[in-house]
Amino acid sequence: MTKRVAIFVSGGGSNMRALVADMVGDHAARPVVVVSNNAGAGGIAWAEAQGIATEVVDHRPYGEDRAAFEAALDAALARHAPDIICLAGFMRVLTAGFVSPWAGRMLNIHPSLLPQYRGLHTHRRAIEAGDATHGCTVHLVTPELDDGPVLGQATVPILPEDTADTLSARVLEQEHRLYPAVLRRFAAGNTQRLDL
Ligand code: GAR
């Protein structure tokens, strides 16, 4: 059975595009919906242009009421009956109430070599720490932020002249290799860790 994938984005969605581009041919999964908390997300316009269903659930009307926001997300998702959720630059923290029912079926990509640098500004923090390497991680999502079993990592060197912007661009290239490769294996039932 083909696996149905929901992709969550908040911004431009370059990782989403890489995932969608790979889900063809003998890939065990297909994209069924792109979900965003941001109606203006470039990723939503792109998905619509591709003929992929989209759902926008703006978080702002819900204020601090995360449970109500997540109930609306759930309702939107239910219309598409996904098997797998891929967070791809989705910049809202999801609580245990939303995450726990998806245990083992929700993936995220994070721009650091987890467990290093959870949270934001990972590239700047890696440079400031004097690290020799940086990279990205695809992991299963658990209620803890940027935690959960690692499915794959890609490593890049940090160069002496790197700024947060140049390093982030180099990591993003690897994100576009790593995330599709991990999802392809995951959808086929392979959860062995992949290192690029
Ligand atoms: C990516 O670098 C992704 O790793 C990061 O946001 C960017 C989204 O770019 N995600 C996080 O920081 C999540 N904690 P994209 O919209 O072009 O894929």
From TrEMBL:
CDD domains linked to this entry: FMT_core_GART
Gene Ontology molecular function: any one: phosphoribosylglycinamide formyltransferase activity
Family: Belongs to the GART family.
Top-level division of the source organism's lineage: Bacteria
PANTHER family to which the protein is assigned, alphabetical: PHOSPHORIBOSYLGLYCINAMIDE FORMYLTRANSFERASE (PTHR43369:SF2)
Positions with a binding annotation for (6R)-10-formyltetrahydrofolate: R66, N108
The reaction(s) this protein catalyses: N(1)-(5-phospho-beta-D-ribosyl)glycinamide + (6R)-10-formyltetrahydrofolate = N(2)-formyl-N(1)-(5-phospho-beta-D-ribosyl)glycinamide + (6S)-5,6,7,8-tetrahydrofolate + H(+)
Active site (UniProt): H110
UniProt keywords, alphabetically: Purine biosynthesis, Transferase
Function noted in UniProt: Catalyzes the transfer of a formyl group from 10-formyltetrahydrofolate to 5-phospho-ribosyl-glycinamide (GAR), producing 5-phospho-ribosyl-N-formylglycinamide (FGAR) and tetrahydrofolate.
Site entry (Raises pKa of active site His), positions: D146
UniProt EC number: 2.1.2.2
Record-given protein name: Phosphoribosylglycinamide formyltransferase
Domain Formyl transferase N-terminal: 3-183
Keyword check for Magnesium: no
Lineage: Bacteria, Pseudomonadati, Pseudomonadota, Alphaproteobacteria, Rhodobacterales
Origin species: Pseudosulfitobacter koreensis
Enzyme class: transferase
InterPro entries: Formyl_transf_N, Formyl_transf_N_sf, GART
